Amino acid sequence: MEPTKYSILIKLLVIQYLSILCVSQDFDFFYFVQQWPGSYCDTKKSCCYPKTGKPAADFGIHGLWPNYKDGSYPSNCNPDSEFDKSQISDLISSLQKTWPTLSCPSNDGVNFWTHEWEKHGTCSESELDQHDYFQAGLKLKETANLLQILKDAGIKPDDRFYELDSIVDAIKEGTKYTPGIECNVDQSHNTQLYQIYMCVDTSGSDFIECPILPRGRCQSSVQFPKF
User: Fold this and answer.
1) Rounded to two decimals, what is the model's pTM?
2) Which of the residues are catalytic?
């Protein structure tokens, strides 16, 4: 074999190996992230309701994100695994309800789900195919009814301020696991309850204690805005 052809063959084999390595990349756990829509709309300069109408005043799924114990995470692991709406046709109505988009302009959610699958979901293909990935998120949402847990503890989306420790304690009491809390600051400079992170094992089915919690930029007292 000529040296040039041999060199090209080696390069192709290396590229193929790296591609396989990336697709089958291991991870340590998932962050399951739920978002409060009232805070999202205050976080952005504007928000738009999806074409199906205003979502329920409930936490919506933001994503199911593979992570490493050191705080880093893989992303966009398989560019060949494109989002295919037909694979989740039986889940669409549930996704529209519990995994809604609030981005502008108003849309049907497909762009949002495409982003979540291609950036995050493809990094979990060793465990979950596309249908399994979105179904796992829906099941986790059913298991962790955060709004009801908070309401049971007297913490309601009424524009009042609540102690951050009380929010964490209520969720830990209701789910048995310590959550990560992320806050935002609205235009009035109020710190608001924005996103809640729960950790899930690599099968995408069971909550676990978080190996590492995100930095949430929260003050000791946070607003729970209406939606």
Assistant:
1) 0.88
2) 62, 116, 120
